[in-house]
Structure formats: C-alpha cells, structure tokens
Amino acid sequence: MSFATADLNATAVEKGAAAPGDNLVRDVSLPALVIHQKALEHNIRWMQAFVSNSGAELAPHGKTSMVPALFRRQLEEGAWGITLATAVQTRAAYAHGVRRVLMANQLVGTPNMALIADLLDDSMFDFHCMVDHPDNVAALGEYFGGRGLRLNVMIEYGVPGGRCGCRTEQEVLALAEAIAAQPALALTGIEGYEGVIHGDHAIAGIKAFAASLVRLAVELQDKGAFALSRPIVTASGSAWYDLIAEAFDAQAVRERFLSVLRPGSYVVHDHGIYKDAQCCVLDRRSELSEALLPALEVWAHVQSLPEPGFAVIAMGKRDVAYDAGLPNPLLRYRAGVLPAQGDDVSACKVTAVMDQHAFMTIAPGCELKIGDIISFGTSHPCLTFDKWRSGCLVDENLQVIEPLTAFF
Description:
alpha/beta; TIM Barrel; Lyase, Ornithine Decarboxylase, Chain A, domain 1; 8-stranded parallel beta sheet; 11 helices; 2 domains
C-alpha cells in the first residue's frame, strides 16, 4: 500500500509545533500534545496480535486521531482497513494513501455522496458505508445510479435507546429487500456497535446483541442477500472488543464471514476511562499477560501561583478532553533543564478547566515554580486529539522524532 508523503519537517505556526530533534522540555512551545513512541508501538502490536489471534481482522477507528501517520503504522502492522465516521474524514484518509475504509455511519446528503462518488472513480478504493432506513437506501440508489457507480452498503443493527441502526431483526430483513431493489447498491455485510449498551447487565446484553447480529448475518446469507461470498460482520468499540471477538469466534463466524473489529482509542490508550476498561478486559482474559499502555499526554507550564496551595496551568478546554474526567498530573519537569528528570506530582489535582486555564491544587510538600512543566494524562483520547493540528512523537529521551499532523 502506498502513502502520500507529507512534509513533516515543515515549521508550523501553531501551538505545540515541533521539529525532529527538538527536546520537549527545552525547545517546544507549550502546551503540546505528546505521544510516546515506545507505548504507541506496543499498543499497535498488542491490538493487532489480539485481533489476529481471535480469527478476526482489524479496522481501527481512525476518527480517534485523524493522524495519517498513525493510520500508516496500523496498516503496516497488519490492519485490514481503517474505520472512519464521515465522508470528509474518508477523503482525508484517501488523500494519505488509505485504500480500504469502513464508514461506520450513514452516508446522508448529496454533497457527502458526491465526495465518496469522486473517490469511487478509483477502482482500487474499497469503501463500505452503513444504512438503516429505506429512505436513505432510496436516496443512495438514486444518486449513485445516476453517477453510474455501485456503492457497497452494510446494514447497521442497533439497540433501543442506542445510536443509529435498525431496532429489530424484522427491520433488518426488510431493509435487505429494499437494498436488493436498488441496482446501484451492493449489500456487503452487517454492522453493530455495542458501546451504547450499559447498566448492571451490560456484559449479558452485549453477548446477546452479538449473537443476534450473527444470527441475522446467517439468515441474510442463507437468503442470498449479500453481494460477497464472504460477507463482513463487524462490531466493537474500544471497551468491549474482547467480548465481541469471543462472541464471533464462539459462533464460528470466521468460517462463513469476514469478522472485523473496530477499536480505535487503543492506539494511544489513556489514563482514564479506557484504562479502567482495559483492567476489565484483563480480568476477563487471564491469559493476557500484558496491557495497553497510555501513550498520550498533554504538557503545559505552571503559569501562575496566585495563592498558597493553588496553581494555574496554561492548559484548558481548548487543549485537553474534559468530558470523561479532568486531566491527571503525572510528572513535573524544570523548564530548560537537561537531562530532563521528572518529579512525581500525581498527588496534585486538577479541579476545573476553563478555555485556556486549568486550576490545580498543590499537594503538601510539592513545591512548584512558575515555568515548571507538568505532563498530564487524559481520559477519552478522541476529544484531546481533535483540539490539535500537530502533536509530538517523542522517544524515551523526550526528543521529538516527528511531528504528527492531524486532519480533522
């Protein structure tokens, strides 16, 4: 697979911009999005091995980062394709060499259809999107038929109160008939997302959902509804991928279907909700001797010390996710000091974030100075990535290896 080469050495005039060879403590304008190479490479290998050993294929959700340099690493390690959420994201990935995309969403609106139609002029581009309503099926059939193209679609199967997707098995079967009536559409599989199943009995609910998904796939295949001899069956976010893999394998999916798992946040993991989810995976899978590692941090300066025991950090809502927990202080570095050795500041606590500031209580015995640099762990990497256009990939010595450019 070929990839377009971006000018990663170009100097960018935006926050956190860095060049190869820069030292994170001395040379980089902060705040900055930081990704640690060793943990990143471990995570990519770990998930690929897990999915492959489960008899499935991996199509990691690229919307987590929208960083083509990470897509490239995932594909080179063996990923089957990249999952995306929108037509614009798909175009960005295509521009950087991605040639197989699952768009885990409905393709709605003529301008978005036009973006995909333009890409389908490339016969090497393998694209599949979701449908869950006859009106969307009719609109897609009319548009792509008018363009003289055939669009691959997959039926999305959902749960009541969840997100998109047909709510009943009967709706799925009826939608398959609507697709069959559209010559410009090819039904290539069935898709679901279990991450919207919550509550005290979530595990049982997820297993039941996966079983229903596979049962529908078998029924549709028996009816000859699919355009592929080995249709795609896909589910899995970043929290319950082990249960989906187990359910697919238990029902012998690999013998009749191409099973595809789609976790995305694993690529950098986190210090919050996905760290907790990974602990649950390890509890369920005692044979897994290693865990994913948090690779993503946001680094920022101590900006003000206006009161005893209170620090204002030069980092806020425009720099770091706050929807699933506030950032966690990890280590403190002295600006300009090399070699950079971090001191534990994890007993300090971020209590609030504003647009450009974070409020942090200072733990007893921790002495901070204005200009000190603190690394922060985050929760929910998707909503940290989307605040940046460039991040820093660093080695164990905090030297920047390459800038990582995002395309949101």
